[in-house]
Amino acid sequence: MNYPLLKILSLLILLLGLNACNKEQEQHEKNSNHSGQYYFNKHCAGCHNKNGTGLFLKGIPANIATSKDISGIVHYIKNGNQKNHSRQMPVFKSMPDKEAYKIANYLLKLQHNYFGNPENKGKILLKNKQ
Q: Which of 77, 107, 112, 120 has the fewest CB atoms within 10 Å, i.e. the most exposed one?
């Protein structure tokens, strides 16, 4: 079996999958009063799942495994990580702060619910390299 070819095909599939996750990434409703769950499902769940656990086999990290606080999450959503130029997640520069804060609050709620559930103890989540 040709392993270099397999690696190239695997990378291509991963990149195409991530590109599909980014559809509608910069469509924001300036005066909307939707919930954090709505915005999370619209912008994040396509790649990170509705529960924030990511897609381990596709290399998409669990965003519930973040150690960031609300402001750190908002900054990461809107500006990315200046040190990590290989980041696959889109940067949402035009996202209104209100929308980003709602996502961050909802993400921390998901995190609390996940790690507060004894059934999830010992499960492995792929963490983002930050």
A: 112
Place of tokens 């709602």: 102
Specify the long-range contacts of residues 69-76, CB closer than 8 Å, at least 24 apart.
Answer: 70/101, 70/104, 70/105, 70/108, 71/104, 73/100, 73/103, 73/104, 73/107, 73/108, 74/100, 74/101, 74/103, 74/104
130 in any annotated domain: no
Residues in the chain: 130
Question: How many domains is the chain partitioned into structurally?
Answer: 1
pLDDT range class, residue 108, cuts 50, 70, 90: very high
126 inside domain = no
Q: Which two tokens stand for residue 30?
A: 């300036």
Phi, psi of 14 (to 5 degrees): -60, -45
Residue 87 near residue 17 (C-beta atoms within 8 A)? no
Cα 80 to Cα 74, 107, 129, distances in angstroms: 9, 16, 12
What confidence category does residue 87 fall into, taking pLDDT thresholds of 50, 70 and 90?
low
